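[scheduler] slot 2 assigned
[scheduler] job type: sequence-to-structure, two independent chains
[scheduler] chain ordering preserved from manifest
[runner] begin chain α
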Amino acid sequence: MSADTLSDLLRAVRLRGAFFFYVEGAEPWVVETSRSSELIPVIMPGVEHLMEFHGIASGSCWAAIVGDEPIRLNEGDVVFFPQGDPHIMSSAPGMRAEILDGGLHFTPRPPQLPYCLRPGQDTSTARLDGGGREQTTVVCGFLGCDAKPFNPLLASMPRVLRVPGVAAEGKSWIANFLRSVVEESSRKRPGGEAVLERMSEMLFVEVLRHYVDGLPPDHRGWLAGMRDAAVGRALALMHEKPADPWTLERLGEEAAMSRSVLAERFVHFIGQPPMQYLAQWRMQLAAGRLRDTDAKVVDVAFDVGYDNEAAFARAFKRAVGESPGAWRRAHRGIQKGHPAPALAN
């Protein structure tokens, strides 16, 4: 495994893009989306957590979690809703959709994704032509990931994560990236869905980088811990060699810090002791091996640092509430679909 801890985590929790679609709106317009957990059966059946994001390819608009203050978005800006909150995108602040379709999906599914919604399009699922002169193009997409047995990234992200399109040194690459998404969406070339799915994953990583770079020194959470020299070193070691017989003393030696200070710093940032983190990380890796391979349970146990199958099985059941065999039967072979969501007006 790589010493790139963030990449390790994203692989282990199976971060994957669903698709892009984009909306061209003429003001006044409003789009309201329900909690992402309600969209999972339509967007990515079988995933445990779904995040929605929007990038402003041209024009400007407003974004808000339902009940919260709206945020102004300009060309090149990207906004993520990592916790899956219901939210609103609109041409002006304070707008709400009159009707929110409980089905939240196109029926039937569009023959090819990504799907483009344009003003005046003949569809009952969106009416985004308000007749005004101000035009906005919003690129929308989804990312799915595992929430269980262990995903420390989710808890470390805010409810709204906004990255501005204009950095101190000028335009960031995100604005050009969004225009590339629109172009790829419009051309509908073979392999377009796969390309756009990977692009959504790239965008998420870049947004996380911007977010981490801007965190204040006293910020806590997994992302802040990854940035700390000692805690980040300990995380990297446990991610790189999860099956090693790690102890707090050995981690402290590797991180050039006393075990007591390391333990204190680790709890400060991550919210739990290093050995507890390691046990949960091993369970996440084991769950992936059980789901994705035909490896025997005893081999999975050895791969994640357990000396025998019985001890592993007990630990796994404590962590996930099921035996390794039951977990495997319940989670293997779930098909991932990519239908498109409905937009309420």
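[runner] end chain α
[runner] begin chain β
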Amino acid sequence: MKFLKASITFILSIIIATSAAAIAGAVAKAETNSINVTLYKDKNLDVIKDDGNFSYSAKVTGNKKAVIVDTEYGDTYTGFRIIGNKLTGSKRATVKIIKTNNITDKSETVKTYKISVKKPKVKKLATIKLSKGQKMVGAIKNDFCRECKLKVRNTKIVKPNGGCPDINTDRDVQLLTFNAKKKGSTTADVYIKNTKVGKVKIKVGAYKPYVDSKNKNVTLKYNSHGRAEDYYGFSEYLRNYDYRIFDKLTYKTDSKYITYNKDDLYPFTINRTGSTTISICHKNKKLASIKAKIKTAKMADVFSNNLGGESDGDFLNYEHCVSYSTNTTYDVFDNINSIVLNNKRKGTNFSKSDYKITYKSNDESTATIDEYGVAHINPAALQAGSVSFKYTIKFSDKSVYTGTYKILVQ
């Protein structure tokens, strides 16, 4: 009997151990998901927080031509989205998210996606209304990642003239110009490559310029510490006007809320919160208007909006080059302050009571950083090539910004 009990106990221990090993193996195995994507549309695939110790990439296998993976690298994250490029049928595409250790170069697959690309349904789109004339601006809804082309059934009434490359607009709207020849109505079939994705009615008549219903109300941002968002213009919301007057459009605003100066790089200055109206004009004649609601922006929005760019020459979100051969220091805070927090040309102004910054080195063997934002760089950094620091700014309005400051050591 004792022998029997011992045998049973031994067998049970083996079963339990085997089960535990199977569970452990299941946990270690890369997660697999199945996703459907519409042809020529995109879908967010994954966003991974990045602490600087690892890098992430995507690999397509199986039906490689079916999807395109778009990778976006941020200061603290790596993002992936997929675009349906070709119908898959029964042969699905596989996308693997690969994690690589930046020190050991060891890689592993952390997630796997099985992708099916489906054909889009044909949609009936909102009517385009135009006045008789050449290069009249119209718009169609386009939430695809490719430009649509129109095949007009009756070109004696209206004929597509081409796109509006100088106008930046919402991602789900495509602006087009038309030669509206005579009054009447017709239908245009909407295609992306050889795939029909919609149809739209086009009317030519005595219509005034107008703003689409979805754009009649906009929300703007205001913060006393600087620009929380840059506003270049609102003419992209305008429909049914001669495209040749695009660069001659002006705006009328209530200066108590918004100041407009057409000669500025950013022609709109937001002065306070509240509600007001922006009029789109040509030769002092109002063509259409937009109602604007101005809300208080977060301090972190001001910081994020002023990190830098080609037009202003002050960059914080890129590698700063330095040349050192011995132990030395580098004032990270001084750059953060002069480039973003207090930059007269950008119009930013923060006092010390408005924020608190904390810092962390991504590799203390090459560099450390103290509470004052002063980096102490080791000669080892010369072999490493670069050093980086994570900084977190907590503002007095409880908003937070986290970024990475990179120094290229030469």
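[runner] end chain β
[qc] chain β: The chain has four domains: 29-118, 123-207, 213-297, 300-409.
[scheduler] slot 2 released
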